[in-house]
Amino acid sequence: GGSLTKLAYYSTVQHKVARVRSFDHSGKDIENEPLYEISVQEEITARLHFIKFENTYIETCLDFIKDHLVNTETKVIKATGGGAYKFKDLIEKKLGLKVDKEDVMTCLIKGCNFVLRNIPHEVFAYQKDSDTEFRFQTNHPNIFPYLLVNIGSGVSIVKVETEDKFEWIGGSSIGGGTFWGLGALLTKTKKFDELLQLASKGQHTNVDMLVKDVYGGAYQTLGLSGNLIASSFGKSTTADKEFSKEDMAKSLLHMISNDIGQLACLYAKLHNLDKIYFGGFFIRGHPVTMRTITYSINFFSKGEVQALFLRHEGYLGAIGAFLKGAEQDNPNQYSWGENYAGSSGLMSTSPDVYPMQRSRSGTFDMLEMDRLERPLVNLPLLKDPSTYIPDTVDLTDDALARKYWLTCFEEALDGVAKRAAASQPDSVDAPERAEKFRQKYWNKLQTLRQQPFAYGTLTVRSLLDTREHCLNEFNFPDPYSKVKQKENGIALKCFQSVIESLDSLGWEERQFALVKGLLAGNVFDWGAKAVSDVLESEPQFGFEEAKSKLQERPWLEDSYSQWLERLKEGPPHKCALIFADNSGIDIILGVFPFVRELLSRGTEVILACNSGPALNDVTYSESLIVTERIAAMDPVIQSALREEKLLLVQTGSSSPCLDLSRLDKGLAVLVRERQTDLVIIEGMGRAIHTNYYAALNCESLKLAVIKNSWLADRLGGKIFSVIFKYEVPCK
């Protein structure tokens, strides 16, 4: 680009993963053996890295490429943007590679499609005067069509209809270069960022002629407010005085932004488009330009069209050029996820903290994306995927909640680091890595205190996911593996007596006991401090003790009577999809008896567990072993497995929460094939922090025990209050 070099590269990352494998128990006394063996193995995964260098440090950038990225097979380097011409000879000479120049617009659009598809909180609207300047949008499953307005030296307006179909529909020679050039002539300031800083301090009304300056007030006949600009720089023709650099820069900024905004609006209306994304060096995350563009679009469209910006707008060209070079590997066939541990997030560029504090190398912004094992898609049962928001509370908006949860995660951090180190007793450097994890996550929390919008909308889910990413970075893939192994073993020994006790009850009594068992199982959550304190100090705390902790009915949210009525009066469900939560007592003594009852009614069951570890949540591979052992004890489960009426699947997630818009494709296919008509979501992370308000096309049960006193208070209850939410979609 004109002032920044953006670099995209692919690497394979070697990191540790926890694997579980069933022991071969043939002919052995298994009474005192662990349930399964846990091994930590090395796994290779793919990662995309994006990094920015200032052009004044181009040599440093090329040294970085030469030292780290060039191997014997590399013959060509893909490049796009003005710098692809300017630095071509230098790059070829220094790296000994051929520079293959790619079309700028094709690259921009490829990059834009990639981030829109893979980063859920990529798009934001800018609101200067609200508490949170950045309003993140939910990604629509169908990203097309949209208008891309690229404001570089001039303005290009492109209509994007599909992955490969786009057309340049218009533009203007009055763009960022005009602002820079005229600004330099007016203020003698040669640097773009300094010019913007001047503008941010200026008062344009000293230079611009307003409607009230012409008509003495508003122009009522045309409905024009008195504060509207009637003529940019209009006062300079009559006033016999010097104007300040700040005021002239501000007037110029308004003039050019309003012109671009009106142009973009007219093209959007002409082509019947309601999504306009703005990019180019003129924007580059500068609040002052985002604010003027937003105002202009809002004014000229009468609020019908919203100006939208992209968190990673500066990388679009580099991402596109990379994708062009990697076409034979087809990166688009995979889903990718942002790695919060290695990404610097959206920086606050308000004038008082600008220019940013950068290291001497000239790099100041990074983004990392990990390739996910399997493609992720929407749950087919979502009522409206375009309006689905997983998270219940937006901490970016809610300052009180934000303060509480950030403090909560800070206070829990020492305990998490200790558990991480303790989970690898044979590793000499585990304490040192645990300390590095602690520092990294602590720094992330401090960044989020200052800039809650750094990674999109701040939520409890994003705080939990960031913690998991940081643990993985320092090779703690599953700190709770031993805890889960032990708890699964203990719970399995109690399974038959729990089933016998349930089977001895009358039908109605049994239904309540099953629900109570599900809720009691849900108490066993090492992610909740109130529970982990009890589990640490009272090792004998078990299933019956958990039942006694539960709130008596009526519960905080209580539609149990409607659920019971549905079971009594309605036909059996065709197929139930259950999202399981914790290992041990939760899945074995809570979920499985419930599954068994559904199967006995003639309902097929899909049991969905996390693909990767998070806290003490049960993983898919652990669930396979647990189910095999239960089947050996229980003929109902055994025959359901044999006849494929009980199916175990992975969710595609490694989070304690649940995003129903990013689920494993195999799960989505199964949900359709089996005509799923009941969804059961259990646990605080999946049913309260996320999906509390999720609307589905079928019946659903959301149940959890609130194990956090602040959250209980917020919802009008006490700790260990019960949420039992049975919902039937409106016909």
From TrEMBL:
SUPFAM superfamilies: Actin-like ATPase domain (SSF53067), AF1104-like (SSF111321)
The Damage-control phosphatase ARMT1-like metal-binding domain, residue ranges: 409-717
One GO-annotated biological process of the protein: coenzyme A biosynthetic process
InterPro entries listed in its UniProt record: ARMT-1-like_metal-bd_sf, ARMT1-like_metal-bd, At2g17340_3_helix_bundle, ATPase_NBD, PanK_long, Type_II_PanK
Membrane-spanning segments: none
Obligatory cofactor(s): Ni(2+); Mn(2+)
A GO term from the CC aspect: cytosol
Homology family: In the N-terminal section; belongs to the type II pantothenate kinase family.
Functional description taken from the UniProt entry: Phosphatase which shows a preference for 4'-phosphopantetheine and its oxidatively damaged forms (sulfonate or S-sulfonate), providing strong indirect evidence that the phosphatase activity pre-empts damage in the coenzyme A (CoA) pathway. Hydrolyzing excess 4'-phosphopantetheine could constitute a directed overflow mechanism to prevent its oxidation to the S-sulfonate, sulfonate, or other forms. Hydrolyzing 4'-phosphopantetheine sulfonate or S-sulfonate would forestall their conversion to inactive forms of CoA and acyl carrier protein.
Record protein name field: 4'-phosphopantetheine phosphatase
Organism this protein belongs to: Nipponia nippon (Crested ibis)
